[in-house]
Amino acid sequence: MNAPFTIALVLDHSELLRQADAARERPVLPPAPAPARPRLGLDKPLRWGWTLGPLLLLLYWSVLSETGFLDPRVLPAPWVAVETAAELIRDGRLQENLAISAWRAAQGLGLGVLAGVSLALLSGLSLLGGYVIDGLVQLKRGIPVLALIPFMVLWFGVGETMKVGVIAVTVFVPIYLHTHSALRAIDLKQVELAETLGLSRAAFIRHVVLPGALPGLLLGLRFGVTAAWLALVVVEQLNATSGIGYMITLARNYAQTDVMLVGLVIYALLGLGSDALVRAVQERALGWRRTLGA
Amino acid sequence: MSPVVRIRDLTRRFTKKGVLDGVDLDIRAGEFVALLGRSGSGKSTLLRALAGLDHEAEGDGEIIVPRRLSVVFQDARLLPWKRVLDNVVLGLDGPDARERGAAALAEVELAGRERSWPYELSGGEQQRVALARSLVRRPELLLADEPFGALDALTRIRMHALLRRLSETHSPAVLLVTHDVAEAIALADRIVTLDAGRIVSDITVALPDEPAARRERFAALEAQLLGLLGVELDAGAIPYADKERITA
To answer: Is the whole-model pTM more than 0.80?
Structure first.
């Protein structure tokens, strides 16, 4: 870097000569064409690549059913599920129950996201908020939904409020955790920048905090969406008179394996579909990032 | 004319980046001052004190700075989730903010890149966006903390010319923190050297226009400043015509 210093450092000639000798003794390899380096990063992902795993499972299931390895009493074939679903749609039961379930999940998810993000902002941006809220969320994390439901019934009755409430308290935990940790990981340099630009607290939250925490929020949302469907199953199978969970419970009482299977498949598809939806949102909202996966 | 920056007996203790020990400094409107010093001499501490960024610093003293003050950091600090123009006008309001932002981008020769994402720009381009973001606020004082330290030598020479041109058109007072002696001489009207938290020299640059005299003055200043920074030049060493290589 600095010429005079370099010269001073290499004055010891004997060392230089020794190095030159050593270099001469090394076998000389002929020049070779530039090697094609194996790529360690990922290629551009295919549009529908993520469907491969589920499709393989479907194939496996079909092959087992067709060849008779899978007893229909244990698990009916995939096409039985399709036929039963078509039947349920014809008499209107499926779409009716699905609509009710979806509405419950959407309400719970909306409330959960709102609560999760607000609490994460409060606890992430103020010390006092953090002292109060963070510990409480960790307490809530330790309580399983199943243990919470009897109390929720006690407080809110068996109606819709209780069902939406259970979903919301299940959803808010992952949203809170991931938003909070992304928010706390925002680079201090960006905070300093906001200070020198004289941003107000509201502008700081809008332009720096929320976009900075968005990757975390969306990751939390992926967990949250799945958690919403899981909570829905629990509340609907425990006490409900409508919804997919109720449909499954009813089918179980009449030993209708095929209807139970349709319910199961519906849950799986809802989970997969909503996750794909969140991932699509992720891709659009985080277009500014350059990462291994994007 | 009264100074736009007035620092009296400024003291900062226990900071990670260096202490200040009774600094007095005035900067006049439109004056370009370079602040030289070794690592840990307190130059960044002084700049952060002026920028109001040293929340947890201990110390006292008087600092008066203009209200309209911009900071350029060593890294461009563009928000990666905002397009270039949105970064420039961040925190500005008023109906003509975007127009002014676009004009500032044109001034740093980035017209047409308004819709780019920061990651699509080179390091030099990002730093030019940061300059535009500072200038669009029409600062009376521009604080620059080693703004070209992370750039390659060729980009740095072009940035020097750009900064000189911009400071001539907008004539804010400038405080440029650097450890590059040649950069300081090439850009500043005045060079203040800081050592162990104290100002040890305050030199007016005044390069003559005539080329030979200019080179001579440049070399003399360089030797003097490097001496102040504790770098000894060998007798008979070529005066650093290759000025981009000199860092103290």
So the answer is: no
